[in-house]
Amino acid sequence: VQLVESGGGMVQPGESLRLSCAASGFTFSRSDMSWVRQAPGKGPEWVSAINTGGGSTYYADSVKGRFTISRDNAKNTLYLQMNSLKPEDTALYYCARLTPRSSDYDNVDEYDYWGQGTQVTVSS
């Protein structure tokens, strides 16, 4: 099983980034997926989730209206479009698979596969 994130970087407040997560070794199209972030000195924070077909998406209040999660099952890839970035969005961003048969998508303990993370830094 592999989840490989990319697309992170350093940007100024108000700018945008698009994260990608390439999945392999499991049936991606049958897996609910999320983005989770962890800021320095803090615990992991669930950011956004998407169901298997992409028709249902969920967001933490802190990113609602600014971030958009999507997926391409033909490419086994998960995305996170991040607009209007703020300094408080600075964190290591992970993609993760929700444990099968779980619907507790905002509980970070319910994820069984994790990537290595990609760093997002928002600073002027």
List the keywords.
0% helix; globular; 124 residues; four-stranded antiparallel β-sheet; mainly beta; seven-stranded mixed β-sheet; single chain
What is this structure's SSE topology?
Blueprint: E1 2-6, E2 9-11, E3 17-24, E4 33-38, E5 45-50, E6 57-59, E7 67-72, E8 77-82, E9 91-98, E10 111-114, E11 118-122
Parallel strand pairs: 2-11
Antiparallel strand pairs: 1-3, 3-8, 4-5, 4-9, 5-6, 7-8, 9-10, 9-11
What does this entry show, briefly?
With 124 residues, the chain is an all-beta fold. It has strands at residues 2-6, 9-11, 17-24, 33-38, 45-50, 57-59, 67-72, 77-82, 91-98, 111-114, 118-122.
Overall description:
- This protein is mostly beta strands.
- The protein is built from no helices and eleven strands.
- The strands form two sheets. Strands 2, 4, 5, 6, 9, 10 and 11 form a seven-stranded mixed sheet that branches.
- A hairpin with a 4-residue loop joins strand 7 and strand 8.
- The radius of gyration is 13 Å and the shape is globular.
- The relative contact order is 0.31.
- The mean pLDDT is 97.
